[in-house]
Amino acid sequence: MIYGIGNDIIEIDRISKAMERNPRIIDKLFSGREKDMLESKGFKPESVAGNFSAKEAVVKSLGTGLRGFKLQDLEILRDEVNKPYVVTSGRLRDICRECGISQIMVTISHSKHYASATAIALT
Question: Can you give the pTM of this predicted structure?
Answer without folding.
Answer: 0.94
